[in-house]
Every structure is written in structure tokens, then in C-alpha cells.
């Protein structure tokens, strides 16, 4: 099965030796998105502002691959401070609504650029 790589200028470029996403058959494995704007500038606000930017980036990568948030089957959330979980969860729910993909949420010691949140997804796009 062939692997293709997804890249869009509507989300920040990878800041290391990886791609924004890899597509294998109908599955899209998107790299973790942090709250960087497409121009590479960082959203330095609270976890709410940062999570909105993360979702903007995820949506751009999904759109480039021909999908949307309704195609997401699994999300992994990395959060700097579990005390922010309620606020993050509220924003997360605004984007997924009744579509409830499987999810893991992990508090981590540090994230790239010292951001408050990073989210990666797996989607099924036919």
C-alpha cells in the first residue's frame, strides 16, 4: 500500500523532520498540532485561545486530505496542565459536537515552544 504525505500552507509547516500528515489507504495520521499560525507565529494566549488555533490547523490538514473533523476516529491530546482540562474539553466539544472520536488525554512535562496543548488525530477518509 502506498504512503502519501499531506502538506498545506494553511497550517504551519513542520518544525522538524516530519510531515503534517501521512495517508495510507483511507487512514490519515496527522502529526501533533500546536498553536502556531500558518505563518509560524505562536498563539501565546490561554489554553482556550491555543486550542482554537490547534483545531484551525487540524481542520486545514484534514481539508487538504479531503476530509473534515467528522472523519476523525481517534485524537490524542497532550496538555501542559491538567487543571486546564475543563477549558480544553469545552473547546474540544465545540469542534466535535455529537461526533465523538476515541480520545486519550495526557498531561506532559513540556511541549514544543512551551505551549499549553498539542493534539494529534487519526482520520478515516475514503
TrEMBL record:
GO molecular function: deaminase activity
InterPro entries recorded: RidA, RidA_CS, RutC-like_sf, YjgF/YER057c/UK114
GO cellular component entries: cytosol
UniProt-listed PROSITE patterns: UPF0076
A Pfam family matched in the record: Ribonuc_L-PSP
NCBIfam families named among the record's database cross-references: Rid family detoxifying hydrolase
Family membership noted in the UniProt record: Belongs to the RutC family.
Name of the protein in its database record: Putative ribonuclease
Source species of the chain: Brevibacillus brevis (strain 47 / JCM 6285 / NBRC 100599)
Amino acid at each position: 500500500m502506498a504512503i502519501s504525505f499531506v502538506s498545506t500552507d494553511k497550517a504551519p509547516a513542520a518544525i522538524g523532520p516530519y510531515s503534517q500528515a501521512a495517508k495510507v489507504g483511507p487512514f490519515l495520521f496527522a502529526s501533533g498540532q500546536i498553536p502556531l499560525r500558518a505563518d509560524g507565529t505562536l498563539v501565546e494566549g490561554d489554553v482556550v485561545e491555543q486550542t482554537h488555533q490547534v483545531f484551525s490547523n487540524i481542520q486545514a490538514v484534514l481539508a487538504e486530505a479531503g476530509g473534515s473533523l467528522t472523519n476523525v476516529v481517534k485524537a490524542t491530546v497532550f496538555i501542559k496542565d491538567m487543571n486546564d482540562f475543563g477549558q480544553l474539553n469545552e473547546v474540544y466539544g465545540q469542534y466535535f459536537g455529537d461526533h465523538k472520536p476515541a480520545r486519550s488525554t495526557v498531561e506532559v512535562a513540556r511541549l514544543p515552544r512551551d505551549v499549553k496543548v498539542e493534539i494529534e488525530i487519526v482520520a478515516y477518509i475514503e
